[in-house]
């Protein structure tokens, strides 16, 4: 045990948080799963009837099957779109165009799920944008909306960044010496890709697949709003059962989803550990030089169009003259912007969202990076179960965690305050940090860290000087993911707020229930503009500090210079 | 490593494990919860929380009322909690299980199904009609023998359609399964009323829903989509994706007033009435309950009943309340419509709601 003391110390804060908050809430849920609610309101405790009903009912297994199928299709589609996109972006020579591309891929996360869904409805609808283009060409109309296809299209759209960023991170850490060596030995471009690039970037691909699969099987809003009642998955089933006050069945369905996810994460984790063994043995930590995106421009333009189209539709619709969504808008008006600023509670909700998102991001970054180091750099016993435990919050539907957390926070005396919101948000963003940082650490050169220690540096100093510079882009990506996920969270938070509290997404959710006009499109437009301004400022600052150079070094920058910067 | 750092780490790990263990222990047992609702006296004031519906202008009248009541009762503060019945009731029930003597809200507006559910869950407490001067003026159909809640208004369900897409106006509930509208019908994710009307028109009723289930199993392809939210509803109706539905007259009229190309029709078999009740939540101290009685009584007055009717586009439950002029000409508010309402026993609906919802999902939703 003494041998693994450092690893245990690094893992402890995350474990404490997860045991104290997540496991506590899930135990509450487990307790409910052994209840049975009768139609007359009678609550029978200590019974396994609800479990029996779930396990022996064919309908529930159909839902489990649909959940798996949706997760697999979405993951494969995201990989098919995401890998070439990451590859193409990595090859872009001009850093500024690479950053613009990365920002475009990230852009969907800047809008709320309500707005995005609205945009897809206007695009994929019977009389939507897509059909208005296909029909004159004799190819339409096609019925995509309210089918599984529309759910997959929308899920890939929002989950694409979770696939692209880990892959591009792996590509950035790829040692160019391997590709050059393969080329010297006569391998062509395709063979170099298959034999060198793909295997060495596999941890990034698997990390991305892990995130996309976990998020897609637990997604609620998209299947619910775009599935038209045809895409019944475990998350929608849980939501229905919570609203139907059948909490025992909601609890059992949550555990079914959790079991499914734990199996999947176990498989992904095993794959990642297998592929992550190809360490680069101290050759160099420098990223591969970009070789130009010639031939990939068409692909990138198509992906940008796919990513940006719903957002453009939202912006245009924010100027619609009518309250309902129709394409094209019958007229234009700025009245929804004026209406937005007349709303009560918007400022307070925005401040609370920022407060919670910033606190949760900082907390998750500190403890998440620590546990990632423990998982990658220390061969401690029980790494597999620990990794699955740390990642498990991603697969529990937020609505189930929200209602379990509501009861649990009461028991802790934290309901109604900011602290309860911060710890629950930290729980749900922690896995994003761990996955992204773990993937980066696997490709980071550990020998530099060892060399620093050999030269007398204390472990923390060695990590700060040798490892941190290598994983800085991943840390930035992880922090962005964490912030955005927390800032946009609504399914869970709606249960955790006291009557006099609101976060911005919950404010939007409540507004949406009251009015059906483009005021939320106006708000989304302003959020996009604000995010663009902040992102541009941050990008300029980071570029000046040289942070991006290790992500995708420009060929204009000599590799030696990069080495100097990263191995001080 | 020094001995001191070893001890510190052990202490740190021990403290951390203790903290997690303590937190975990609370998951398995009761810990005295904090007050959830701002219901205690604050600055010498009695603070009460009112539950209000989300949707359209349903929050207007409660806010206006609270403002006026607080102006004339300086010792009372009324906070408004706007939420949907489903999410709001779930939180109320969770709060009741965690702290039965500290309800999330003190009183508020609840639809008929939630009222029945709440009666079964012992969520609501009896109102003393004799102590409420305006209770006697409420339509007797919305004063209840058990005294759990009292009606303030009546919404209704009828047919709502896109007049640009459907040129021949539907006039019967049977139009929902008329093959002329195949693949064009939108319904809420669990429309018990559609099953009920199918049962009723085929020899059944609330006590025998089988004919309705059989019909919808057979005609599931009539449904283009099951809708989850009001904005989605407005969009699919307005853009013609699914131009026909069964929907609330009140919210439908608000959409029509905002310019949506829709028309509301009272079916020839009668609309389905949806009473909106005011309820007092159980578990609050007597001092609060007395104030809640006074507030509910004020809300039942002709003035506030009429204002509720105007903002929610509903029929006022107070027989002395005047129907607002802008509503008087609408078919939904005619006496014939009110007289022709379907007779619905919401006790049956509430008690079968969960089972019916499961059956809808397995027998109908899986076939659309």
UniProtKB/TrEMBL annotation, chain A:
<feature type="transmembrane region" description="Helical">
    <location>
        <begin position="99"/>
        <end position="118"/>
    </location>
</feature>
<feature type="transmembrane region" description="Helical">
    <location>
        <begin position="356"/>
        <end position="376"/>
    </location>
</feature>
<feature type="transmembrane region" description="Helical">
    <location>
        <begin position="247"/>
        <end position="271"/>
    </location>
</feature>
<dbReference type="GO" id="GO:0005886">
    <property type="term" value="C:plasma membrane"/>
</dbReference>
<keyword id="KW-1133">Transmembrane helix</keyword>
<feature type="transmembrane region" description="Helical">
    <location>
        <begin position="518"/>
        <end position="543"/>
    </location>
</feature>
<keyword id="KW-0813">Transport</keyword>
<keyword id="KW-0997">Cell inner membrane</keyword>
<protein>
    <submittedName>
        <fullName>ABC transporter permease subunit</fullName>
    </submittedName>
</protein>
<keyword id="KW-1003">Cell membrane</keyword>
<feature type="transmembrane region" description="Helical">
    <location>
        <begin position="149"/>
        <end position="168"/>
    </location>
</feature>
<comment type="similarity">
    <text>Belongs to the binding-protein-dependent transport system permease family.</text>
</comment>
<feature type="transmembrane region" description="Helical">
    <location>
        <begin position="299"/>
        <end position="319"/>
    </location>
</feature>
<dbReference type="GO" id="GO:0055085">
    <property type="term" value="P:transmembrane transport"/>
</dbReference>
<keyword id="KW-0472">Membrane</keyword>
<feature type="domain" description="ABC transmembrane type-1">
    <location>
        <begin position="64"/>
        <end position="268"/>
    </location>
</feature>
<feature type="transmembrane region" description="Helical">
    <location>
        <begin position="388"/>
        <end position="409"/>
    </location>
</feature>
<dbReference type="Pfam" id="PF00528">
    <property type="entry name" value="BPD_transp_1"/>
</dbReference>
<feature type="transmembrane region" description="Helical">
    <location>
        <begin position="68"/>
        <end position="87"/>
    </location>
</feature>
<feature type="transmembrane region" description="Helical">
    <location>
        <begin position="415"/>
        <end position="441"/>
    </location>
</feature>
<dbReference type="InterPro" id="IPR035906">
    <property type="entry name" value="MetI-like_sf"/>
</dbReference>
<feature type="domain" description="ABC transmembrane type-1">
    <location>
        <begin position="350"/>
        <end position="538"/>
    </location>
</feature>
<keyword id="KW-0812">Transmembrane</keyword>
<dbReference type="InterPro" id="IPR000515">
    <property type="entry name" value="MetI-like"/>
</dbReference>
